[in-house]
C-alpha cells in the first residue's frame, strides 16, 4: 500500500495536537492509559509520518539521479 503525501500530512496534523495536550496538560499525564496511548500509538505515528514526508523527496531525487 502506497501512502500518499496528503494522507501522511493529515495523520501528522491530526495526531500532533494530542502530543501538545500531553506536554501542556499535566493532569492527563497522571492517567496511565493516556500516557500509554501517547507513548505507544500517537508519538510513533507523528514521528513516522514526519520522517517519511521528510525523507521521501530525498530518496526520489536520489533514485532519479541514479536512473540517468
Question: Could you explain how this protein is built, in words?
Answer:
The radius of gyration is 16 Å and the shape is elongated. It is 88% helix and 0% strand. The relative contact order is 0.14. The chain is built from three helices and no strands. Helix 1 runs antiparallel to helix 3. The chain has helices at 5-24, 26-29, 32-67. By secondary structure, the chain is mainly alpha-helical. The longest helix has 36 residues, at 32-67.
Short description:
With 68 residues, the chain is mainly alpha-helical. The protein is 88% helix and 0% strand.
Helix count, per DSSP? 3
Which of globular, elongated, flat, extended, rod-shaped describes the shape? elongated
The H/E string reads HHH
Structural class: mainly alpha
Radius of gyration: 16 Å
Q: List low-confidence stretches.
A: none
Tell me about the largest β-sheet.
none
State which percent range the strand residues make up.
under 5%
Average pLDDT value?
89
Strand tally is 0
Please report the distance between the alpha carbons of the first and last residues: 27 Å
What percent of residues adopt helix (DSSP H or I)?
over 70%
